[in-house]
Amino acid sequence: MSDERQRRHKRAMEKLKQHVDAKVAAASVERGLLLVFTGNGKGKTTAAWGTVARALGYGYGVGVVQFIKGEWECGERQRLADDPQLEVVVMATGFTWETQNRDTDRAACEATWAHAERMMTDPSRYLVVLDELTYMLKFGYLDVQRVMRALAHRPPEQTVIITGRNAHRELLEMADTITEMQETRHAFNQGLKARRGIDY
Amino acid sequence: MSDERQRRHKRAMEKLKQHVDAKVAAASVERGLLLVFTGNGKGKTTAAWGTVARALGYGYGVGVVQFIKGEWECGERQRLADDPQLEVVVMATGFTWETQNRDTDRAACEATWAHAERMMTDPSRYLVVLDELTYMLKFGYLDVQRVMRALAHRPPEQTVIITGRNAHRELLEMADTITEMQETRHAFNQGLKARRGIDY
Known about the structure:
Strand order of the largest sheet of chain A: 3-2-4-5-1-6
GO molecular function (chains A, B): ATP binding; corrinoid adenosyltransferase activity
Number of domains of chain A: 2
Largest sheet of chain A: 6 strands, parallel
Number of helices of chain A: 8
Helix content of chain A: 40-55%
InterPro entries (chains A, B): CblAdoTrfase_CobA (IPR003724), P-loop_NTPase (IPR027417)
CATH architecture of the largest domain in chain A: 3-Layer(aba) Sandwich
Oligomer: homodimer
CATH topology of the largest domain in chain A: Rossmann fold
CATH class of the largest domain in chain A: Alpha Beta
Protein name (chains A, B): Corrinoid adenosyltransferase
EC number (chains A, B): 2.5.1.17
Pathway (chains A, B): Cofactor biosynthesis; adenosylcobalamin biosynthesis; adenosylcobalamin from cob(II)yrinate a,c-diamide: step 2/7
Radius of gyration of chain A: 20 Å
Strand content of chain A: 15-25%
């Protein structure tokens, strides 16, 4: 590479580093975060599980509550389940369009939410994941004010991740970080089968 | 709940189930996928690691190649590193704006890419993650044609996940599934410190 190009690159990188350093210095508040992974694209639940693996890697206590999804989606649970620092609760009623009974689903949601509330009062849980919670609000199985209350009163060091499409407006307002996973293209819509160990 | 509401719900769910069943039936092609997680939002790398945990949960062989990122980001690696089915290679030169030497970075990229190529010829790797690869193309450290060639010739059962901002147009054209992780809000920009075990 020419010396001139090398110098230009170095200057550009120095400028970028200054910018990043300034942002790091400005970020001074330390507390647990509320993260929302929403949107119609692939990656919401897997991003949550990736964060679970990350937190466990440092030895932090983690709680995961999975709403709706059934026992068939279990690769990541299986892999991490033996960790004494991890507790996973799964509603496991199957998808609501398979059970097709609103009252049963509502009762299952209620019982599962009780575990979420317990975890959100436990300071030993550094990270709590409420996977697919958004649907519980959307279907009216759970009241948004109750969810907001539990979030507001959780231990200050605790980070909570909420995943699911169509996140409630009030949840979004409360969130520190929101990522909208947008589906630009999905293999499934092109006739490609869902892959074991990849899609579920 | 009223009987009428219960009936309405049941009908809506039956219709949804028909729609989903039809899509599942139409998806008949079985092969490894090319997934791209791009966009400026949080969740690209963690979604890849979540998928790693998922694939490992079924006992599949997984290879991860991390471009750029340094040793400091390691929670998820640490947690999964003991898995005999997982191989992780990390370029680990630190961020390019810290090393600020284009030639060194390019050489490190070249050496790291060799591992990616090896994994992409190995049928025992059911999943290969090329984390932050997009920057290697953007910085000109790696030629896109070379990457496309390796992808095109990989074992048919192998799924590859590429993460990073500003994914190359040709990579996007080749992808089966693209998720654009959009940053709607980020805690860091509101003065909140990055959290150990959450952000890194």
